């Protein structure tokens, strides 16, 4: 963790923990072990602030902000341990098609693959249909060249509730 990034929700920097590790290291390690042995994380440590940082001088749209999360250091430490453990497991359970979850691959690879597939389908004059999903505007629309009249009139609707975690 970068020592002097934005202070966490508790106001402390990672630098404090790194600088004082000789004094607090044993207590922090014991606390982390307790968490992994089933002790619940205190609700106050679980709080995270999400702050929007402006990318431009006078932002007018939400896309002109960059969100950052200010987590408690101890909470972030536990989450980093979990993430590092999952890095070992993920390659065994995630298929190669899920590019955004594979280390060293970009989600933009999928854009190029999709363009190649659609180009190939158009070139071979095959019947095909693709569905374009715009998550930013929460709309779904069919895309294709060989759609029947019925499928051209299909309307896809998606609600915020369907996308919630």
Automatic annotation (TrEMBL):
Reverse transcriptase domain span: 62-137
Name under which the protein is recorded: Reverse transcriptase domain-containing protein
Domain of life: Eukaryota
Organism: Gossypium stocksii
Coiled-coil segments on the chain, per record: none
């Amino acid at each position: 963790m970068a020592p002097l990034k934005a202070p966490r929700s508790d106001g402390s920097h990672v630098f404090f923990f790194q600088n004082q590790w000789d004094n607090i290291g044993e207590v922090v390690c014991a606390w982390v072990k307790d968490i992994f042995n089933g002790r619940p994380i205190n609700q106050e440590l679980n709080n995270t602030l999400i702050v929007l940082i402006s990318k431009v001088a006078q932002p007018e749209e939400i896309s002109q902000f960059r969100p950052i999360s200010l987590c408690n250091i101890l909470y972030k430490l536990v989450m980093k341990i979990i993430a590092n453990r999952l890095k070992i497991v993920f390659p065994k359970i995630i298929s190669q098609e899920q590019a955004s979850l594979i280390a060293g691959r970009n989600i933009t690879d999928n854009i190029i693959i999709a363009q190649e597939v659609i180009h190939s389908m158009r070139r071979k004059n095959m019947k095909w249909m693709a569905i374009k999903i715009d998550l930013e505007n929460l709309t779904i629309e069919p895309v294709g060249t060989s759609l029947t009249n019925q499928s051209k009139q299909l309307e896809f609707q998606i609600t915020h509730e369907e996308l919630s975690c």
